[in-house]
Amino acid sequence: MTYASHISQAAATIAQAGPGWNGIDAESVARMQLQNRFNSGLDIARYTAKLMREDMAAYDADPANYTQSLGCWHGFIGQQKLISIKKHFGSTKRRYLYLSGWMVAALRSDFGPLPDQSMHEKTSVPALIEELYTFLKQADARELGMIFREIDKARAAGDTAKEAELIAQVDNYQTHVVPIIADIDAGFGNAEATYLLAKKMIEAGACALQIENQVSDEKQCGHQDGKVTVPHEDFLAKVRACRYAFLELGIEDGIIVTRTDSLGAGLTKQIAFSSEPGDIGDQYNAFLDCEEITDLSTLRGDVVIERDGKLVRPKRLPSNLFQFREGTGADRCVLDCITSLQNGADLLWIETEKPHIEQIASMVDRIREVIPNAKLVYNNSPSFNWTLNFRQQVYDLWAAEGKDVSSYERAALMSVIYDATPLAAEADEKIRTFQKDAAARAGIFHHLITLPTYHTAALSTDNLAKEYFGEAGMLGYVAGVQRKEIREGIACVKHQNMSGSDMGDDHKEYFAGEAALKAGGVHNTMNQFA
User: Fold this and answer.
1) Please, which residues have CB within 8 angstroms of residue 323's CB and are 6 or more apart in sequence?
2) What is the DSSP string of 364-387?
3) Selection from 84, 375, 31 nearest residue 208 by Cα
4) What is the pTM assigned to this prediction?
5) Catalytic residue among 72, 207, 221, 242
6) Is position 221 annotated as part of the catalytic site?
7) Fewer CB atoms < 10 Å away: N or C end of the chain?
8) What is the pLDDT of residues 418-460, one digit of tens each?
9) Which residues, in sequence order, are bridge partners of residue 180?
């Protein structure tokens, strides 16, 4: 609906209500409606699922159309990210939000900072989704409110051309609301628990759920040791639980991202059920590290299985976990991914120990032999030392090409002494083009950084504390923060406006007319930043 049609519809509703509504202004109603485009989280999930499906089709047509996101741990952080994107690029197209379970555990739990082991309150996840979208909706309301004020100024000046231009901006307004890929960890329990939490996350606005194949009560961060996976049927029950949640709530095109941690997981909590040779349980068990049993007297409460007509004992640790054979991680990842896509997953996530395009591509190539349009979400993780990894990749490439690398020490390439070298420059260029190159070569549809705003908060706070509590004093804040905000056009320099003060004044005027007591008068110190 256009601005004019919203006004007309509101006017008809007011007229139908009779004289009791004479104090209600149709244009004010229209403005408030436009500032609140999404009435529920399900409205957001429907809208963003459609966007994400369109983006997936665009990527299939051309891998240059990959998508990106940054992990955000607070609604304000997500809001500022999208405001920045619109300011610098004019569009939010193909830019998403990511909700990291790691950051929820570390920053949003009532228990205080926790490791990424699913120990935080599961309800904190949908709560953060709702918070993120509340802030994004407020960003819409704030920006539209400023346009409405400019419309009023143009009318007062009799500038009909300017007024028409501004109304066109309203009619073609692009919302700050974008898709979110939300981390449901390993489901926080059994399949029913997964379903219940998935419903809450979707109701809060999530159009894409990311679920991993680790054991829920033994879950580890993807970049830590001690990861334990579950048999495929156990995992697929949770994938189906997520799909049922989407369908129950009317989000037919909701997206499920299945993550495999098998590359770095050497353990399983249980042996898979198998009813016939070659079924999915049998394939899972084939990766177990086993030893043949020839003397039954050696068995003491052991589990034994049949393999190729022989009785074998899977190696079991004191933790009661079973061990996979060394070197089977990539094969297990490929099987995980193919099985997930054949059972309702939309996108894949392969957790790796380093950002290496050919390593990722070697698995994706095998997956695409079975599922040609398989696509990945990839974690450009801060757990990788990007500088060291890419310098070592360039070092290895140069050495293989016969170039002289005698002036470099491979293990010490992180050192500042190499920062200005040709090797460092080539490594930085590979980092710069990593996402584009990986999208083209390794099937990566979506690139995300899980924890960037955790690190930026720490870095910016360290810089301010160093200056403010040091010799710079107040200049540490003024030169390091406020002056930069002004020079770089950071909207938050007018923090009263960002927090909603001007919107509140507009509402007061709608409600009370000339009697409204507004905060944005001539004595408001925000006027110093006009």
Assistant:
1) 266, 267, 288, 289, 314, 315, 316, 317
2) HHHHHTTSTT--EEEE--TTS-HH
3) 375
4) 0.93
5) 221
6) yes
7) C
8) 999 999 999 999 999 999 999 999 999 999 999 999 999 999 9
9) 97
